Amino acid sequence: MTTTQYATNPVAPQANRWSAVTAVAVGTFLLVTAEQLPIGLLSPVGSALRISEGAAGLVTGASIVAALAAPVVPLVIGRLDRRVLLVALMGLMTVANAISAMAPNFAILLVSRALVGIAIGGFWAVAAGLAVRLVTEKAVPKATAVIFGGVGAANVLGVPLGTAFGALAGWRLAFAALSILALVVSVVLVAVLPPLVATQPLGLHQFVDQFRNHGVRAGILATFLLVIGHFAAYTFVGPTLQQLSGIDTVFVGPLLLGFGIAGIAGNFLAGAALGRALHWTVLGIAARLTTLVLLYPLLGRGPIGAMILLIGWGLVFGGVSVSLQTWMITAAPKAVEAASALWVAVFNLAIGVGALAGGAVVDAVSLPAVLVFAGVLLALATLAVWSGRGPLTSARHTQDSQSAGTGAH
Length: 409
Fold this sequence. Notes:
Elements: H1 18-36, H2 42-49, H3 53-56, H4 62-77, H5 82-102, H6 106-127, H7 131-134, H8 140-169, H9 171-192, H10 204-210, H11 214-234, H12 237-244, H13 249-274, H14 278-299, H15 303-317, H16 320-331, H17 336-364, H18 367-387, H19 389-408
Helix pairs in contact: 1-6, 1-8, 1-9, 4-6, 4-17, 5-6, 5-9, 6-17, 8-9, 8-13, 8-16, 11-16, 11-17, 11-18, 13-15, 13-16, 14-15, 14-16, 14-18, 16-17, 17-18
C-alpha cells in the first residue's frame, strides 16, 4: 500500500473519453519522433553547421533533459490545470522545432533541443498517468496501451518517415514539419481534453514518500535495470545483425521495421493482459526478455535464428512501457502523478545510461559480450519485479475493495 495522501484523481470519470486518449497518444507520437529524429539527421546537420558528427550527436541529448524535466515540471506548476500544461508543452514543442528549423548556428540548435527535452519530460510525466483521469477504471489498461502506442508508432513510422523526409527535403524542413504538426495537436488537445485540475500541488515530500512505498521502489528499480539492459544491447542491434548473424546490410532496415511492428503488437497484447494479471504479466515480460537476449549469442549466429529472436524481442519489449506504467499506477493509486513523474525520469535516464554502458562493453570486450551484459541486467530486473509481488498485490486488493465499497453505496 502507498503511504502518501496525495490524490490527483479524486473523482473517477463516469464515461470514457477516447478522443482525448487518442489526442494524447498522438502527442506522445510527436514527442518521441522529435526526440529521436536527429539520430537519422546527424550527417546533414553536421555538414550544414560545419561541425563534426560527434559534436552533432549532442542534439540527441534531449532524453537527458527530459529525465530532469519529468519531476521538475510537476513541482513547478503547482495546481495548474494539467490540460493547460499539456497544451502549453505542445506549444513549446511547436516553438522549439521552429527554432531548430531556423537555427543559424550550433549553439541555437542545442538550446532548441533542450526545450524539446523539457516538453518531452513534462508531457510524458503527466500523460503517463493520465488514463485514470480520462476513462473508467475498467478501461485504464486499454487507454494506457493506446497512449503508449504512440511511442511504438513513432519508432516504426515517425522516425523513419521523418528521416526520409529530411533526406529528401532537407533537415530544416523536417523540423519545420514537426513544428506544424505539434501546433495542430495543440489545437486538438484544447478541443478534446476535459479540465484536469490537481486537488493539491505536488511538493518534494510527495516524491520522497514514493521511495517509502515498496511497490514503487520495486517498479523503479525494475524499470532502471530493464531499460538499461534493453538499450545496452539494442543500441548495437545493427552491428550485431551484420557481424554476429551474418545478415546483409540491406536487410537490417526491414528487420528493424519488423521489430517495431512487433513492438506495437506487444504493447496492445500486454495492455489486454494487464487487467487480468498485472504482476504475472510484468514478470513474464522481464523473464522472456532475459531469455531472448541471453539466447541470442547462442542461437542468433545465423539469419533465421536472428530474425526469430529479434521479432520475439520486439514483441516482448513492446509491452514494457504500458506494463510498468500500469504497475506504478497500481502501486501508488493516491499519487499517480508523482509516481509517474519519477518513472518517466528514470526511464529516460536509463536510455542514456544503457547506450553508454553498452558502448563501453562493446569497446572493451565484444558484441556478444554486450548481449550477455544486457541479459544479466534483465535477469536482475526480473528479480526486482518478483520482489514487488506482495506490495503490488496488496495495493491492487485495496483498490478493488475500495471500488466495491464505492459501488455498494
